Every structure is written in structure tokens, then in C-alpha cells.
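Moderator note: this is an archived Q&A kept for reference. The question asked for a predicted structure of one protein chain; the sequence and the answer are reproduced below.
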Amino acid sequence: MPSIDRRSGGPDVNHQNRAPAVDTRTVCAKLVSTVKTGGLKEVIALSIDKPVTIGRNPAACSFVIPDAVVSSVHCKLYAVHSSTGGIIVSCQDFSTNGLILNGHRVRRTSVILMDGDIIQIPSSKTFQCVHIWKEPREKNTIFDPTPPTHPSHKVRIGNYVVTSHCLGTGGFATVHLAMDKVASRQVACKTIGLKKDAERETVMKEVKILLAMDHPNISKILDVEEDGKFLYVHIFLELCTGGDLFTYISSHKLKSGRLCEGEAKYIMYQIFKGLKYLHDKMISHRDLKPENVLLYTPGPYPRIQIADFGLARPKAYEKTFTACGTVMYLPPEGILALHDKRLGYVAMPLDCWSAGVIIGAHPFDRGPADPEQSEISTRSEQIIKDRIVHGDVDFAHEIWGGMGHAKALVSRLLIHSHEHRATVGAALQSYWIACDAEELERAYAERVLAG
């Protein structure tokens, strides 16, 4: 039940929304009504992983609005940790008449609420979103405000309004929040700067791969726009509002130690299904890791999407001599190819190895080489490389003692020789998956395929 904060004294104007006091230290965001009711402003307090349901039905909702225009269950608010150190506040609409976000109507979709956004139930209440926990930002000078001010800007690109709200950055691209005015939904805009024609060819290769794919566990491309001078390519993607798998796993470690085996299995089942779809099309991702697996919406047992196809390779059955990817998730042949450009490897078994590392939760990394150094140093990275090449897998008994079938699958995915390594098809037929196949398929149909 959310905390409803009355900003001034006087009578409680909405008895059905009364809630017990909460520890204000756990409140990471709040929605503040823009209009006073009975001389009071209502505040809906949000805490991490404690959803708030808004609607007309008091039996189903934690915040009740008894207006006729409000649906029985109108929308659901959720707050989760972001990979940048702040939070992601999302709102999923279930209503018949939708929501209005910053003047744009959205329907039957999930949106991200940034700090300062205005969200309205049409002809009913209006709230402003306030982020209390904010990502750390560096000050350029001692005279800069704390935190620094970053006013939001917008630009029109095709049918989309792209905002300056940044969802993520990489070496070659930035991802911004955008609004699809035609489809009444938020989207992600991945903008890639181009310096020469060769870079454009590389970017358009990623676009071509994504355009050819249609799978519920693969990031879906919606549109592509290029500016007149070909300085930028804008890739518009289906928006995921639950953050990434790495942050999701990390937040669980802080609370309860690790994901339960059932949820881990459900997530890996989806990853395997996405990879199976790719490999059937002879495409390899080549950088599969939790940071590149997104949660479609927040909450337990999430639907996931494999994202970031910048390193993906078609014709993945052919040997490649271009080593790439993230060291922690590379197989032995990939590590060797990093140091000897004459050595090639086949890309699809690389994805299978990476999936095994995800299940195994970094079985080659036993912590930094220098216990007084928290970041992975060059020395500790080399130790990890040596462990990968020499097959030094660590299965801690306190974790794996009661999960023999999962351990057996990980062992098959982490076989040194790529020719004998388990394929994605074999992983889906493994006993760890097969013993719960009926339940997994039912959950997948209800939670993923049904939308």
C-alpha cells in the first residue's frame, strides 16, 4: 500500500487512500497532484519494487480515484534501479481512455516517467513525477548547482518527438526517450553518429539485421531515419521500461542474495528461445551479456528482450577472424583470437558459451585479483582470460549443491571445444528446462505471447 502524504493540516479528503506511514528513506520517487483537493495536495510515494495500482476499484487498487472516467484498474506505477545509479519510474496503462503524458496521449502501453514529467488521467487527476533518488552527476566547476541543472529539450525527427532524456550511452551511440505521435506510445531512439561511409555501412548492417527479425524476445525495430547530410542514423526501437538484467540481478543480490531457480529458469528459457530464433536465421549476437538483456516491463518473472545488435553477424556458420565482445563472456576460442588475429572462430557457439556464463553467474571470476582494488584491473582480467582458456570453472557448492540439472547444462554450454559445446536447441531440450517445459510454455504464452 502506498503512503499518501497530506501536505497541509485539515481533514483527510480521501479516506480510502489512507495508508500506514512508511520509512521515508525507502521512498525513491513520488507523484504529486497538481491541483489541491479540499485544500490539500495528494502525494503517492514510490519505493523500489513496490508497485502502486491506480483505479476506481478499491478491491484491486492501492490508490483509488472514484471518478466515472477512471477505469476499474487504470494504471500501475513501478520504480526499479537503473544501470546509471538512479531509478526508472514506469507507468503501465490498462485503461480504456488512456493517459496523457506531457501533452501526448498514450494507450495500452508502458511509459517511463522522468523527473518533472506530467501524467494525467483524462478528465480526472493530474500528477507531476518527482525523482528523489537521482543518478550521480559530475560538477564541471564548484559554482555549478548541486545537482547540476539539465533542462529537457525536444527535437522532431519524422513522426517522432525525441527528448534529451538519455536512457543510455555507448562507445558509438546514445539512446534517448522519444514519443511516437502516430502510435501514441513512447519509444527508444538510438542515435549513431557517422564520420565516413564505412561507418554508415556498419550501422545499416545492424539495421538490416533488426528489420528482418520479429520475435517477442528480440529488440524490435520500428523505424529508421537519417538526417539530410547523413551525419546521424536514428533507429527507433520498442521501449523496454524495466531496466536491464544485470541491474535486476544486482538488486536481488542486495535484497535476498540471488534470483530463485524458478525465475532464473524462466528468464533463461526466454533467452534460449530468442537465441534459437537468431541461430535458425544464421545470425549470431556476439555480445550476449546481462547488460544487453532488457526487461520489457518491471516486476518478477519478467518478459525479456535481447538488445544491442551492433556486433551481430549474419552467416554465423562461417568462421570469423574479427574478435569482439566482452571478455567475461567470451569462450576460449574468442579469448585466443583476441591475441592472435590469425585465429578464427565460429560465432554461434560463442552465444551458447555466453548464455552458460549468464546462468553460471561469472563462474570464471572469483573476485578482483587485488583484494584492495574493487575495479577489475588489467591483471585480474588476464587471470579471468587464463581461467577461461584453461577451463577453470568454479561451481560453489553453497550455490550449486542443490541444482545438479542446472549445473549439468552450464557444464555442457561451457565445454572448451566449440564443436562439442551444447547448442541452443540442446539447451532447450536439457532436463533442467524439459522437466518444467509444460509450466514454462504456459507462463510464456500467458505473460509473453499474450502481450
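Archived answer notes: The chain has a mean pLDDT of 86.
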